[in-house]
Amino acid sequence: MKLPRTSSLFSDTESLLIFGVISFSTFVVATLVRKYLKRKLKQRLLQDNVDITSYAFIVDVVSFTIYLLGFGWAFLSLPISSSYAHSLFASAGASTIVLEIAAQQVLGNIIAGVFILFNRPFKVRDIIEVSGNKGSVKAINIYKTILETDDGIFIRIPNSLISNAVIINYTKKEMQ
Questions:
Q1: In whole angstroms, what is the distance from residue 41 CA to residue 138 CA?
Q2: In this structure, are strands 167-169 and 133-140 parallel, antiparallel, or unpaired?
């Protein structure tokens, strides 16, 4: 029976420890940054005539970026043997197709959210109607827009549906 080499054992344990520390640090930093930005957003809300539409979107984008960079860095710290790397590269073509199909709707919502943010067909607090759903815009996130009806019902509409729908904005009287 062959015993594992101690240097390899410590190397793997060290790599897993580094992965855990980086992952935990990423979560803590993202949470603190998100709380800080939300606090600043609430301060802006207290001021009159401030359009908060882009602020809420920026909070989501910054948080997403921190998670993406942090967890990407954490995964890079994991040991990958050369045989595993060769297998990974060999199956990259098939996995890319699968990931593309799976992420199509999510990426479509993100891109549509960016277009909504830049084109500004509506903003937070506007009263709009989209696909027969009428309400006040409560939030525009990366993936969705949230409306509140007169009855107090919240409606979550994916941004990709909004970008392809007719939008009636009852708050804006003039055309841009």
A1: 14
A2: unpaired
Place of tokens 């199909």: 101
Q: For residue 54, which of 147, 129, 141, 158 has the smallest C-alpha distance?
A: 141
DSSP single-letter state for residue 137: E
Listed in sequence order, the residues at least 6 apart from 134 whose beta carbon sits closer than 8 Å to its beta carbon are 127, 128, 147, 149, 150, 168, 170
d(CA 145, CA 138): 8
Give the 3-state secondary structure of residue 168. strand
User: How much is the pTM?
Assistant: 0.56
The neighbour count for residue 109, using CB atoms within 10 Å, is 21
For 6-53, the pLDDT digits (tens) are: 445 446 778 788 888 999 999 999 999 989 988 887 777 666 566 666
Sheet containing strand 167-169, edge to edge, reads 154-158, 144-148, 133-140, 127-130, 167-169
- Residue 163's contacts (CB-CB under 8 Å, 6 or more residues apart) are 112, 115, 116
Task: Give the C-alpha separation, 145 to 26, whole Å.
Answer: 27
